[in-house]
Design a protein that fits this description.
1075 residues, six-stranded mixed sheet, Ig_TPPC8_1st, Trafficking protein particle complex subunit 8-like
Length: 1075
């Protein structure tokens, strides 16, 4: 028989009242138990043999007996909710460990791990039925018998037994008492004499028991011996505690010392449309504005118990067998015969009640009341629901009692006939509560007859009953009871679609915990359908997680959200994914699982967000608060977004005077620069062709340059990295102390000594601080507005030789709460370039909310052809962030005092070229190369100053075709070589400056032109082993706009008039130079 049948048999088992004296409970108290608690583990699978009402012997059945102490009332209100919550807490999944059994479900692109068992749901369901009080229309929970227990150690056990009987009789007369009795005063009585086998008087006990048997009958009496462990010996240690499942009735206390009122919610709150949580009063644990570090009340920990107990330590194995024997004797000698007798009597009464008068009454009621099924929902007046009152001997109630008694002892066919008959009677009387109960039990009787029974399972019976309980009778507890029972039947029959609908129908606001459990079960129903409906499963799990959260069950809420995340994550369900990740982070943070909270919040921000600014602000605040609570130096943060394809590395020192755009060497393409550099190299070395190991100077590396080999940068020169940062959010972000994170391998490749400014890097004993090796410059403050993109330039100055690797960028991040600096306020566009000018200094931790974060810089080269792919690496190596630091080199700076932006076509101007060696070693073999040598030339050899006249020169043809100048211009000859030495400047010492006159000529074509000059030089102290640069170059480019000019030719001739002496005829010819 399946679990569903076993569960229903367990729910519908005979109830037996227990009335124990104080002495008896004290005797059991040595084991930390009351008498009722003592016998609970032995009440299952009790075999009973009965005969049907016709006298035919039936096969033996195994039943469970529900013993209940008469002094213990049924929990109501907050206490009932507290016990239900405790049942769920004791069976919650371990979110850190393996947890319950998992099942992997694969469907299309989905791989989902789901819980194959839900013990917390079963525990809640069992606790619900345990705490369910008996009802007037349902006799299955009424007491069939009463067990009276007295101690043999009492001075007058018989008198005490009479007193217990009298007290029970008074309770039966008290209609307001919580106990309900199946047959009123007529119930089976069973008398137990409890004897202490270790300290009790055996002779006195035997005499007392003999008198009890003479008075009440041997079949109704039993002497139970317990505590047989000798007092002189310590009790044996037994690690098996069969009473561990007994609930403790200690009310849980909150962290502030107040008792929990048993409500399923800590504070009422509602969901906002954007997925957030809003508390309606006070501070709620899910309030986004509550700091994560502040603990809040939660139901995730079970209630504190009364301390560790060793239950049953005075019971021997024989004592436990005695208890089993007592339960068996009671069932076979007292309860079974009593039930058999009552079944026979009820059958006779029901049969006699079917006389002519009863048939006439039923016909009359049917004529006036009607029998339409819709009548059960016809009246919504609550006062009319219970208007029908039956006496205990009413024929309708006798039929119902017959059905309940037969059902309790597994005579399901007899029970169905009785329920079906009672249903018609109650329907005719419009007694909707009784009718709903009869329909409910009739459906259960058909189900318990098995799938091969004579009738199909009538699902509409349960549907009618649940609707009546909810809509007409206003009895939600009975509707929940019917739904739980109906769910077991539908699950056994495989009707998962109907089951999901029934469970969702019971969702309400009166119990968040119950609603969460029902939503979760409905979600699992969608997994059992064919085909599987994964998205419905995940959606209902999200709803269940929300209701678990409202009920204070954070662990269950976290488990539900994590299961749903497997379906919604990275599937385009943006708002659903945001809600899941945010609530997962909140629950983890409240449970103290900050690492998991960080991962959830990180996933929330590591994607495009479509939330509004307010919700994004909440996300970022909780994310930063989690990082702060983790108390670690740095975490990898997804904000702001860095465009890895735009990472640009500049190698070499760029003085502030060269920050103007016309000196950065980016006006012409790189191929022209390489050609000029090659010409200079051949001129300086005297070679006719380039050697195989020749390599051009690399000063800029980006995605457009070949980066297959690491570049060499001289020691003490700046390495600048440009990063494009984008704020994807609708709120402003503030960055402070932005700097590069690096690692340098000192010395040669095999030394293995590494130094890094990573906070987690540990220095060796003989190593200096990181700033001794690399000077790191920081950008003090950057404010990135919503949706803004900025470009920042971060720089390093190496102080040693080695192999440098730029790992990432570190910064302090916070929401922008202060005004931006003037540098960022002045930006009118969405992009700006900011450069650091100050070295990195430690920031005091007391500055407030900003937290340290970093992002790893990862660049990759071009995509390889499939044939060239090795080790699954599809992209070429890119070394733009891995330069080699070589020895110090000279550094030439070329500049002009003034440089014209506009010239006439063909105009010649004299400029003062200033050359400075800013680095320590001297430079030699200084050469200059011009892309268009006709536009530039040097002056006379030895000239070191400019004449006052700089705008007049005389042009005359030369024999060799070159253009020469007269002495006024001080330009002896214009040379047309691409590479030319600088007159009088072959070398330049460290720190020295020299000025040289230079003539430039405006091109003959009007428009914008470009002047490109390349200065080539070598160090006077070449490095050993070829570790440094072979030569260096300095690039200069400028844009000049030329405008049209006139070319004038004048011709003077003598006057043709004879009398006009001393006069000449002057003819002037003017021509536009651009034509």
């Amino acid at each position: 028989m399946g679990e569903n049948y076993v569960f229903i048999e367990k729910v519908f088992s005979p109830f037996v009242a227990v009335s124990a004296s104080d002495d008896a409970d004290e005797l059991c108290g040595k084991n930390g138990l009351t008498f009722n608690e003592l016998i609970q583990p032995f009440t299952d699978n009790i075999e009973v043999s009965l005969k049907d009402p016709s006298g035919t012997a039936l096969p033996p059945v195994k039943i469970k007996l529900n013993f209940r102490d008469l002094t213990t009332p049924y929990p109501q209100g907050s206490l009932a909710k507290k016990q239900l919550s405790e049942a769920v807490l004791r069976n919650q999944a371990d979110i850190d460990g393996p947890g319950p059994r998992k099942t992997l479900i694969k469907q299309g692109i989905y791989d989902v791990d789901v819980c194959s068992v839900t013990p917390w749901y079963s525990a809640y369901r069992d606790a619900f039925f345990t705490s369910l009080a008996p009802q007037e229309h349902d006799f299955t929970r009424h007491f069939l018998a009463c067990v009276f227990v007295v101690s043999s150690g009492h001075q007058a056990p018989q008198q005490q037994l009479q007193q217990l009987i009298h007290n029970v009789g008074q309770l039966q007369l008290n209609l307001s008492h919580h106990s309900k009795w199946f047959f009123g005063h007529h119930v089976a009585h069973y008398y137990v004499l409890l004897h202490d086998g270790g300290t009790g008087d055996n002779t006195m006990a035997e005499a007392t028991f003999l008198s009890m048997k003479n008075l009440y009958g041997a079949a109704n009496c039993h002497m139970l011996t317990i505590n047989s462990v000798s007092p002189s010996k310590p009790p044996p240690i037994d690690n098996t505690d069969i009473w561990s499942s007994l609930p403790d009735l200690v009310i849980p206390r909150m962290p502030n010392g107040e008792q929990h009122n048993g409500s399923s919610t800590i504070l009422p709150f509602k969901m906002e449309s954007n997925g957030g949580v809003k508390a309606t009063e006070g501070e709620h644990p899910l309030d986004p504005l509550v700091p994560l570090s502040a603990p809040s009340p939660t139901m995730d920990e079970p209630a504190s118990r009364r301390g560790p107990k060793r239950r049953g330590m005075w019971l021997t194995t024989t004592d436990r067998e005695n208890v089993k024997t007592f339960i068996s004797d009671f069932a076979t000698q007292c309860l079974g015969p009593f039930a058999e007798q009552q079944l026979r009597g009820l059958t006779e009464q029901v049969t006699k009640g079917k006389g002519i008068h009863r048939h006439l009454a039923i016909a009359a009621k049917s004529l006036f009341a009607g029998r339409g099924k819709a009548n059960i929902l016809a009246s919504n007046n609550p006062s009319a629901v219970n208007s029908v009152i039956y006496s205990q001997q009413a024929p309708e109630l006798l039929v119902r009692k017959l059905g309940d008694l037969a059902f309790l002892f597994h005579q399901y066919e007899t029970a169905y006939q009785a329920y079906h008959s009672a249903k018609r009677d109650f329907h005719g009387d419009q007694a909707w509560v009784y009718c709903a109960g009869a329909e409910e039990m009739a459906a259960l009787s058909v189900f318990m007859l098995g799938k091969d029974g004579p009738r199909p399972y009538p699902m509409h019976y349960f549907d009618n009953a649940i609707k009546a309980y909810l809509d007409v009778c206003k009895m939600p507890q009975q509707a929940v009871r019917a739904t739980f029972l109906h769910a077991e039947c539908l699950r056994s029959l495989g009707k998962y679609d109907v089951l999901a609908t029934q469970l969702i129908r019971l969702i309400s606001e009166d119990s968040d915990l119950r609603s969460a459990l029902l939503l979760e079960q409905a979600a699992y129903c969608y997994l059992s359908m064919q085909p599987i409906q994964l998205r419905k499963y995940a959606f209902h799990l999200v709803l269940a997680g929300h209701r678990f959260s409202k009920a204070g069950m954070r662990r269950h809420s976290l488990r539900a959200y994590r299961e749903a995340e497997q379906v919604f994550r990275r599937r385009g369900w943006t708002f659903a994914e945001d809600h899941i990740l945010y609530m997962t982070g909140r629950q983890c943070a409240m449970l103290g699982k900050l690492e998991d909270a960080f991962q959830a919040f990180h996933g929330l921000l590591d994607k495009t967000s479509q939330q509004n600014a307010a919700q994004q602000s909440i996300f970022v605040k909780d994310y930063l608060a989690t990082i702060k609570a983790l108390d670690k130096r740095e975490f990898e943060i997804p904000l702001p977004k860095i465009d890895m394809t735009s990472v640009r590395t500049t190698l070499g020192r760029i003085p502030p005077m060269l920050e103007n755009s016309h000196v950065q060497g980016q006006c012409i393409n790189g191929e022209d620069w390489h050609k000029l550099e090659e010409c200079c190299y051949l001129r300086a070395t005297g070679q006719k062709s380039l050697p195989l190991n020749y390599s051009s100077t690399v000063d800029i590396m980006d995605s457009s340059t070949p980066n297959g080999q690491p570049a060499v940068v001289a020691q003490n020169e700046t390495i600048a990295v440009e990063l494009s940062m984008t704020n994807p959010l609708q709120i402003a972000l503030s960055l402070q102390q932005v700097h590069l994170r690096w690692e340098v391998e000192l010395g040669n490749k095999d030394s293995g000594d590494r130094v890094s400014n990573d906070p987690g890097h540990k220095l060796l004993k003989d190593q200096h601080p990181p700033e001794y090796y690399i000077e790191t410059c920081a950008l003090e403050f950057v404010n990135i507005d919503a949706k803004q993109t900025i470009v920042i330039k971060l720089s390093l100055i190496p102080k040693c030789m080695g192999r440098l690797r730029i790992i990432g960028v570190s910064y302090l991040i916070s929401l922008s709460a202060i005004s931006p600096s003037l540098s960022t306020n002045s930006l009118s566009s969405d992009s700006a370039v900011l450069s650091p000018l100050t070295p990195l200094t430690p920031l005091a931790e007391s500055q407030g909310s900003p937290v340290w974060g970093y992002q790893t810089l990862t660049v990759k080269g071009y995509k390889l052809h499939a044939k060239r792919v090795k080790n699954n690496e599809w992209y070429a190596k890119d070394y733009r962030l891995q330069p080699i630091i070589g020895p110090p080199m000279p550094c030439l700076v070329a500049d002009f005092d003034t440089f014209p932006k506009q010239m006439l076509c063909g105009e010649v101007q004299r400029l003062n070229l200033r050359l400075t060696n800013t680095a320590a070693p001297a430079l030699v073999k200084l050469l200059m190369a011009a892309r268009n040598p006709k536009e530039v030339t040097f002056g006379a050899v030895g000239l070191r100053s400019l004449p006052p006249n700089n705008n007049t020169y005389k042009e005359m043809p030369a024999n060799n075709g070159d253009v020469t100048c007269n002495s006024v211009s001080l330009c002896e000859e214009v040379k047309t070589h691409y590479v030319m030495p600088i007159p009088g400047v072959g070398s330049l010492e460290a720190g020295s400056t020299v000025s040289v006159p230079l003539w430039i000529r405006g091109p003959d074509v009007p428009g914008e032109h470009e002047l490109a000059l390349l200065f080539y030089y070598e160090t006077a102290e070449p490095s050993q082993g070829g570790a440094g640069l072979r030569h260096r170059v300095t690039k200069f480019s400028a844009k000049i706009t030329t405008i049209s000019s006139l070319i004038v030719h004048a011709n003077a001739e003598p006057s043709i008039k004879a009398d006009d002496t001393g006069s000449i005829l002057l003819s002037v010819h003017a021509k536009n130079s651009s034509e």
